[in-house]
Amino acid sequence: MKITEAERDSFYKVLFSRRDVRREFLPTPISDDVLNRILLAAHHAPSVGFMQPWDFIVVSSEETKKSIKQGFQEANQQSAEMFESDRKEKYQTLKLEGIEEAPIGICLTCDRSRTGDVVLGRTIKPEMDLYSAVCAAQNLWLAARSENIGVGWVSILHDKVLRKSLNIPNNLEIIGYFCLGYVETFQETPDLERHGWQSRREVNNFIHFEKWQK
Ligand SMILES: Cc1cc2c(cc1C)N(C[C@H](O)[C@H](O)[C@H](O)COP(=O)(O)O)c1[nH]c(=O)[nH]c(=O)c1N2
What we know:
Homooctamer. It catalyses: FMNH2 + O2 = dialurate + 5,6-dimethylbenzimidazole + D-erythrose 4-phosphate + H(+). By secondary structure, the chain is an alpha+beta fold. It has one domain: NADH Oxidase, CATH 3.40.109. About 40% of the residues lie in helices and about 15% in strands. The protein is built from 7 helices and 4 strands; from the N terminus they run H-H-E-H-H-E-H-E-H-E-H. Strands 1-2-4-3 form a 4-stranded antiparallel beta sheet, with helices on both faces. Helix 2 packs antiparallel against helix 5 and helix 3 packs antiparallel against helix 6. It is globular, with a radius of gyration of 19 Å. The site of the ligand Cc1cc2c(cc1C)N(C[C@H](O)[C@H](O)[C@H](O)COP(=O)(O)O)c1[nH]c(=O)[nH]c(=O)c1N2 has 11 residues, from strand 3. The site of ligand FNR has 11 residues, from strand 3.
């Protein structure tokens, strides 16, 4: 199956207009059909040895979101302390989650023993299963964007908060917690760039030919 030029352009449009969303969420519900398409897209990510090591825990309960939000607030305070003066002040002005505003949260986990101990492709580099689960995260993010749904990855959370709130067994690795919701608009530039925290760097600085160069 060949991709037409128009389809290619649509794909890049989705990819380049994807944003990490924390503040623009609308309360509009996400239908089961839409959610299922997004989760199916995530499930079609590549995975080492075709392990498919992921689970997706879909959260819509306000009470659960509240307990996760509380965990975020604690972790965020702790995180702010790690930055020096000016940076710390700036950090405290950033909005770094949309846990309660987003109609749906999804926690992505990785079952490192899903297909046994010895896995094709993971024999030498054991972290490959975690990377596979992250591929599912990216698929989810892009599929959501193609549905005009914003996604925000919240990693300022201790695992124990998610384990307790979502009943996640200790043998599962927690990859991430994602906030999903329709948005009024997708910003053109990342939040961190618009708020002067970090800008996009020039891609040519990171491309090397033949050998790595300083
Ligand atoms: C693994 C991981 C973890 C996080 C993020 C991303 C990724 C990949 N990002 C989002 C991040 O800040 C964002 O992707 C960059 O700023 C670039 O912006 P766009 O995603 O292009 O909008 C993120 N953002 C945020 O507000 N709170 C968070 O806890 C996190 N955590």
